[in-house]
Amino acid sequence: MLGSSQQAGWCKKPPSHTKARATFLQVVCKVTYTIVLLTITEVRGATGNNEVSVTVGDSSVLACPLKSNINMLTWKIYPKAGGPCNLGYRADTNTTDRTNCSDSMNWKFRPDLGPVLGIQQVGIAQEGNYICEVVTPEGNFHRIYHLTVLVPPRLSLFCDEHGKPVCEAAAGKPPAQVSWLLGNNSSLEEESHDNGTVTVLRRLTACNTNVTDTTCMVFHPAGSWSESIACCPSEIGSFLHCVISLMSLLGLFFLQAVFRLYTFCGSRYIWNMAISGHAHVRSQT
């Protein structure tokens, strides 16, 4: 027959065992209990951690685990800016409530519909963690979303004061990747803004004299763009520019000379008229 200590369970300290043996058995019991608890949690309360990206201004839909016989459902929202927001439903009173949530959080639980949270016109401030908890007779279930808001940059190209092409991807989130096609010699500048966006500026420091137009390429999770600009002149263009500049300068000198000659001749004419008049007066007297 089994002894009383064996009937009580193998985790209890047998009177005949040493202290070290008892300590070892206690550790084994705790580890076994932890493994069993984690297994039950994994089976009964499946946890999902999902990364969701949405472009600013668009809408997003987040879904909870769809379970039957829901007793309680709660959305716990921790945005990047502002305080936490809670949305809840209780089956015993068939009521919903919301705490510190903006009107863009469109959610009203109905048993015949899935527990879905809709976010209208997503902004940067709504980036953060969204946790849905569902309580049923079978156990508790929850799902975690990390919402990332993408901001497409504003692309602009221009020539700087030295005639070098500049490509700017303004206020993007995350920062855009900017590069010049067929242009290896360039410098990069970045400026971070308070709202989390970054402006990236790529300046071409050396022009390819064989190519008139240069193309800027912008890569971003919200899309990709390319645009060309003509800042760097070709060799023929540089020669023509020099010829035109020289002719313009010579023309300016010519006009200045004509103006001075005209001024001089006018002055001499007036002077001669004055002398002639003076002489005529003297002859009459």
Number of helices: 3
* Mean of all residue-level pLDDT scores: 77
Radius of gyration: 41 Å
Straight-line distance between termini: 169 Å
What is the element string, with H for helices and E for strands?
HHEEEEEEEEEEEEEEEEH
The parts where pLDDT drops under 50 for at least 5 residues are: 1-17, 27-46, 234-238
Helix coverage percent: 25-40%
| Class from helix and strand fractions | alpha+beta
Q: Largest sheet, order of strands side by side?
A: 1-9-8-3-4-5
Give the oligomeric state of the chains in this entry, treating copies of one chain as homo and distinct chains as hetero. Answer: single chain
Sheet-strand content, in percent, reads: 35-45%
Mass-distribution shape: elongated
The major pleated sheet works out as:
6 strands, mixed
Q: Got a strand count?
A: 16
Description:
The protein has 285 residues and is an alpha+beta fold. It contains 3 helices and 16 strands. It has helices at residues 4-8, 19-44, 235-284, and strands at residues 47-55, 60-63, 72-79, 85-90, 95-99, 105-106, 116-119, 128-136, 139-150, 154-159, 165-172, 177-181, 186-192, 198-204, 214-220, 223-229. The protein is elongated. The termini are far apart.
